[in-house]
Amino acid sequence: MARKVKKMSGKRYFDYSLLFVIIFVVGLGLIMIYSTSSYTAQMKYGSSEYYFFKQLQFVVFGLFAMYIAYRMDYHIWRKLANIVFWGSIVMVLALIPFGTEVNGAKRWLRFGGFGIQPADVSKFAVIVMLSAMVCSSGTKIKKFLYICLLFILTAGTQALLIMSVSNNMSSALIVLGIAFVMTFVAYPGYKVYVAFAGAAVGFVVALYNWLQSIVHKGMTDNFRLNRLMVWLQPENYASGKGYQTVQALYAIGSGGLFGKGLGKSLQKLGFIPESQNDMIFSIICEELGLFGAVCIILVFALMLWRIVHIAQNAPDLFGTMLATGVFAHVAIQVILNIAVVTNFIPNTGVSLPFISSGGSSTVVLLGEMGIVLNISSKIRLER
Prior knowledge:
There is one protein chain. The two termini are 16 Å apart. 67% of the residues lie in helices and 6% in strands. The chain has one domain. By secondary structure, the chain is mainly alpha-helical. The model is unreliable at 1-9 (pLDDT under 50).
């Protein structure tokens, strides 16, 4: 006789494991930011806690955003999808007249002492808009051409704007990657995606072989081609464009199995520029060693597993798609950041979620986690 499944009245699920992991990673990020930036902050601002307190402000604001997002019914984002999406486009376009130029690119909007990177908002906007459009598609979601149309209208539009306005290829790739994962989950077939993956691998192999054939010619006038050259042979450009990569590899190699100890890094003493930002994982490897680096990767793996669990058990398709988008956002940034630091892929400006110093990225990611926690609270327990 089949066992009857009875819903427990009034009982709802809440993922305390995910909440604990979020708090742990954010706390670890603050510790590592203080450790990596204290020397630079002392030399530049006369206070070793400058970057620490700056990031602490963003963390507090981000935790508040996470709480608000948790308290809000996640279905409200379906109603706000158009506002969020078009608002993010307006923010990107606002970079043209109002953006602050840093290292030759306009990527920040400044409001007094507060700054926001529109590309971070665009990532969230794509998650919300694509989730809403998938849920409104009905049976049309079974057509691959329709999936491609959704991809182009959401991620394609945002990525093109980000590239053309702010020349931010890394954020554009993340936006495209988020949409790729979400459409893969939404589309019932998988053979086309396998074919795309195979074609992408073939393209990367062909590109690598082509670069190997011309690498001996040295630097060119093309900025992105030069980045690829540095990626292949960073030691040949150690005094120039390959300096940061080589120093990061030195930090990783010198850490050994258990590291030099927290706060005892040498590479952060001016050798790795802005070590509290994109290259913070190299300092983690130097101070905490391979053991510490693996533990951090496992913590991120636990976070992603809990998000997948919530996505699988979400009450409806919209909740599943939102959680899937957040999963893709975190996973892609973690993979890209670690791959860049270890020189597995060419250098791009991708931060390590919740750990690297960064205001708008931290606030947006914590806000997304609040939405995932709200989705988890709507899951009904069964016995």
